Write a sequence for this structure.
């Protein structure tokens, strides 16, 4: 990793009834797309809010460009951008008025403002909606406007908290195309997401669960860390098939995805033959196939290992 | 410093596009001004009166004439024995004057004439005035009748009757017009509600919608943000003060006897306090509903009920009188009525001005401590 721009060490955030972030440490290098992945209530939002200087940490150190942001948040303000999960622009202001407001608050000159507004409206494909009030935009357009507003002052690091939650798949893909372009311009991106396909687009992924980071690595190495292989099985009746495979000693884990059963095994090729032998007489076997392990299967394995090694504790959504 | 302007511009857009804020800031004050100016008249006259004259003589007619010409009573009915009760029941008349048979005879001979006045007591203040006015008219009538009777017996009463003439003069509001009293008082009420409710809602709205986060992480300083949010409402408040003064003096003919400069200075101190109060409310509440309800309860109600705006503080129970010392409108009312009606200056009003200064300082101090925590 090149010289890190964000360094987090033993960050703890306590809320009155719950420890939302439980001693996490990680580093983000310049030009990265850093993904924070995990289930709801994992502590992703809290982490992002601390990094973007909205929330003060309970303890631990957070440095951005070497500045301790808990002690001196103003040292990085104006150079970082934050886009919250919830739409947080002014709904009663138009697209243009929102952009203008952000430009003015960040002290842009009139010339800069005019140039960047034109550029960003084009970039976010909002040119035809400049006079529309933000509250009357579609979900995808709202997100693009929020992004445009944070980009107008050209921050060097952008924190995005689940930017595509509740956005349709087409807009999601479009949004990620925009993020890739930003990365090309040298802006570091810190994104939280519950979606595994989005996690795969990141250069580094930290998997967060129960306030802790379970693993932090590039997606490829997370996938290869997966200890087993995957076999996908479709059989009828599914309930019966599931019961049988769960009792087989060479099947380590079973997950249900609609009509498909995903089995974790040591050697997929061998397992296919054994499954055909063990199941064909008892259920109606539609298909048995070897699949490549995904991030999701790797994470599920991590969660289950975590649950086994750790005593269950009370955790809530921050 | 230049960050204040974009915040102000944005705030004006919010005000103009939000029907509720626009209503509270512009239409509510005008509505209150007209409603209190016209409807809340404490002057009672033209009381609907019925006369049941059973005597039908020159003397009885003269008495009725005295009632009618006083201006306080309008003779709207001449009911008979059976229906004057019914007219009182239905509210058709508020006062019934019953002159029994033999009124004139009694007046001339043994001086034992009687008149019955029945007053609808369901509205006590109204009844008190009705009883007072009718007693006054009847006693004047009887003094005159006595003089005539003495004259018939050969005793002439010279000028100067009755022997003691009370020369009561009312200063500051000689015609006892309640609008003179109400309109300056309304200024205290309107300024308080407009500033406190609006500023508390304006800040809490940013919290509720999450837009405050954007401002917190921007380079803007918290005092710039607060000033930018406050200034539009200060402008509106002073615009409204001018409006009330204008409509009050030119439309309702309220006298403005004192110094405009002192009025302005008083307003500045008062508004500083009410804005500070709005900021305190915004710092301790999280939703617009709670903020506007809290602001309404802590400003409008005390300013209306416990300030002496309509209900005199001296006639409240002692415990309640003590509470009124905590209501800033109480002091501002003394100042503003003093300036408008009495034309007095700082030398008389300083204790109340001082109380307002203390209130404003306290509010601004609490607000800055609380907001520093929110906007860190």
């Amino acid at each position: 990793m090149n010289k890190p721009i964000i360094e987090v060490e033993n960050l703890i955030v306590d809320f009155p009834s719950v420890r939302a972030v439980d001693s996490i440490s990680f580093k983000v290098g310049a030009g990265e797309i850093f993904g924070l992945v995990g289930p709801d209530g994992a502590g992703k939002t809290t982490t992002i809010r601390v990094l973007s200087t909205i929330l003060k940490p309970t303890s631990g150190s957070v440095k951005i460009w070497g500045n301790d942001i808990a002690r001196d948040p103003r040292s990085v303000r104006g150079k970082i951008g934050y886009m919250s999960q919830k739409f947080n622009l002014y709904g009663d202001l138009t697209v243009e008025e929102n952009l203008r407001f952000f430009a003015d608050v960040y002290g842009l000159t009139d010339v800069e403002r005019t140039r960047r507004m034109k550029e960003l409206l084009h970039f976010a494909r909002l040119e035809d909606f400049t006079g529309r009030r933000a509250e009357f935009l579609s979900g995808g357009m709202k997100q693009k406007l929020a992004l445009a507003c944070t980009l107008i002052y050209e921050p060097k690091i952008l924190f995005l908290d689940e930017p595509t939650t509740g956005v349709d798949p087409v807009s999601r893909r479009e949004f990620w195309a925009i993020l890739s372009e930003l990365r090309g311009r040298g802006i570091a991106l810190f994104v939280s997401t519950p979606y595994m396909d989005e996690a795969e687009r990141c250069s580094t992924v930290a998997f967060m669960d129960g306030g802790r980071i379970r693993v932090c690595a590039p997606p490829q190495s997370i996938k290869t860390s997966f200890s087993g292989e995957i076999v996908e099985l479709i059989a009828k009746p599914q309930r019966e098939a599931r019961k049988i495979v769960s009792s087989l000693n060479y099947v380590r884990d079973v997950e249900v995805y609609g009509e498909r059963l995903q089995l974790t095994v040591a050697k997929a090729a061998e397992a296919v033959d054994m499954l055909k032998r063990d199941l064909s007489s008892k259920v109606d076997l539609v298909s048995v196939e070897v699949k490549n392990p995904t991030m999701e299967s790797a994470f599920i394995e991590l969660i289950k290992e975590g649950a086994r090694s750790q005593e269950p504790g009370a955790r809530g959504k921050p | 410093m230049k960050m204040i302007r974009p915040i102000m511009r944005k705030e004006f857009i919010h005000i103009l596009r939000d029907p509720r804020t626009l209503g509270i800031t512009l239409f509510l004050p005008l509505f209150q001004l007209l409603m209190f100016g016209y409807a809340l008249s404490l002057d009672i006259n033209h009381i609907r009166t019925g006369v049941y004259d059973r005597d039908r003589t020159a003397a009885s007619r003269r008495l009725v004439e005295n009632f009618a010409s006083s201006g306080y009573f309008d003779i709207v009915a001449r009911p008979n024995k059976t229906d004057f009760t019914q007219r009182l029941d239905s509210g058709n008349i508020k006062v019934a004057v019953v002159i029994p048979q033999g009124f004139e005879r009694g007046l001339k001979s043994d001086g034992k004439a009687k008149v019955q006045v029945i007053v609808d007591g369901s509205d006590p203040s109204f009844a008190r005035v009705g009883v007072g006015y009718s007693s006054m008219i009847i006693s004047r009538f009887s003094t005159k009748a006595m003089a005539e009777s003495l004259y018939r017996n050969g005793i002439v009463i010279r000028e100067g009757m009755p022997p003691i003439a009370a020369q009561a003069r009312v200063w500051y509001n000689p015609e006892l017009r309640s609008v003179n009293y109400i309109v300056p008082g309304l200024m205290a009420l309107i300024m308080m509600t407009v500033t406190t409710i609006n500023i508390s809602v304006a800040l809490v709205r940013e919290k509720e919608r999450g837009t405050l986060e954007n401002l917190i992480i921007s380079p803007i300083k918290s005092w710039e943000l607060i000033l930018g949010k406050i200034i539009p409402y200060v402008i509106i408040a002073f615009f409204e003060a001018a409006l009330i003064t204008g409509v009050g003096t030119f439309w309702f003919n309220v006298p403005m006897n004192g110094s405009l400069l002192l009025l302005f200075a008083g307003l500045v101190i008062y508004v500083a306090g009410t804005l500070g109060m709005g900021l305190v409310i915004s710092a301790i509440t999280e939703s617009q509903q709670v903020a506007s309800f809290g602001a309404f309860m802590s400003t409008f109600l005390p300013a209306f009920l416990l300030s002496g705006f309509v209900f005199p503080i001296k006639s409240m129970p002692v415990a309640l009188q003590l509470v009124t010392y905590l209501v800033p409108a109480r002091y501002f009312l003394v100042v503003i009525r003093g300036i408008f009606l009495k034309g007095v200056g700082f030398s008389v009003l300083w204790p109340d001005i001082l109380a307002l200064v203390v209130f404003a300082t306290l509010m601004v101090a609490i607000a800055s401590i609380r907001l520093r925590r929110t906007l860190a």
Summary: Chain B touches chain A at residues 2-3, 5-7, 9-10, 13-14, 17-18, 209-211, 213-220, 376 (CB under 8 Å).
